[in-house]
Amino acid sequence: MTLINKKKLSGLYLGAISAAVLAFSACSEQPKTVQASSQAASQVSDELSKQAVYQTMKYVSDWQMSKFNKQTNLFEGYEEGAFMSADQADSHPQGWVYASFHVGMAKWAKLAAEQGDESYFKQLADIAKRNQYLFAPRIYNADDYAIGQLYLDLYDQYQDPSVLEPLKTIFDIILLSPSTTDLYFKKIKVDPKADQDNNESPFDEFEGRQFSIVPCKSRWCWADALFMGPPVWMHLAKVTGEQKYFDFANKEFWETANLLWDKEDHLFFRDTRFFERREANGEKIIWARGVGWVVAGLARILENVPAEHPQRADYEDIFKKVMARLVTAQQDDGLWRPSVLAPESQPYKETSGTALIAYAYASGINQGLLDKQTYLPTVQKAWSGLVNAVQPDGKLGWVQQIGHAPDTVSADDTQIYGVGGFLLTGVELYKLAN
């Protein structure tokens, strides 16, 4: 593939965004309270009761939102362990980090609204309005349109069709001119002789932020994208009744899933770079958060695949297989380690991957896809581990930082995508609670 001129590439993205703007203008165990501090004792509990689960989610979400700057739509300056440089793509307020947080917050907001508290939905509506219902700049990259899920959730709540106009415009552009790149993860090399992982990559720049250029990311070539992308397309198909959105997502999902699926271990590689890599113990490198993105994405996808769809059984089959495999890798404290098949390689608690996996189990039970008697103990154990990672003030710790492979984690490390996963799990557990 030839390298596109940087200014031309920027113009392509920004032109598409401008087009969007114009279009828009037109069982329960006995209670076991976490004894982190007397302050948190009455707020945070791993007891599986509706009241305890609800209060725990509220405590964690309220702490997180107390760090939000309404002027910038950013979480700012509260934690070195959650630092995102202002000049990096990951700090974009409409990028994947924020989108994955809002996915969990919207689920929590719906539950809170059902209990008479609409304040969380109002917060999200204000955020979306300040976003002008737009996206981060790379229109073909699932990381940058994942926030469309927030706008869909707000549409479900308030039935305002205007919030969907930019989303529909962007997706229609993609449908008119879909990417035809292959799904093999290759960075554009500055030095052709350099190793892929240690080679400097060229960047495109938007709004003072640098975005790396990885050609295959114009499709869903990495595990995370199966959480960021297809649920948005399928949800849009459901609310608009336009089959074209579902058909695109269905086709692209299976292209990626069939490539990254490990038929031997019933797990998912993060991307094609990991096919031949091995841990020190000889096992494959299966990243907990990577496979967590996939199973959480599948749980969300299955909410939108019609029962009569010819591939419904295929979605259910692959979901059940990976969930049956993951249960064998859960550790005694309820958490999964960063490396699923080699927990000793990075022997740290890790809450973001655990939260996504736990959500998939709980959602699978609630959807009637997973046997409750078999898997509820797994969910309870994971929830206990997650709650024990909540610090006295409500901060969720032990979240592996932004990356693409198993890495070190500390008790003070946090990130908002971890909180998003925590809230997703809690909402599904609330449904299961006595």
TrEMBL record:
Keywords: Hydrolase, Signal. One of its GO terms (molecular function) is hydrolase activity. SUPFAM superfamilies: Six-hairpin glycosidases (SSF48208). It holds the Pfam family Glyco_hydro_88. Residues 1-23 form the signal peptide. One of its GO terms (biological process) is carbohydrate metabolic process. InterPro entries: 6-hairpin_glycosidase_sf, 6hp_glycosidase-like_sf, Glyco_hydro_88, PolySaccharide_Degr_Enz. This is Glycoside hydrolase family 88 protein. It comes from Thalassotalea euphylliae.
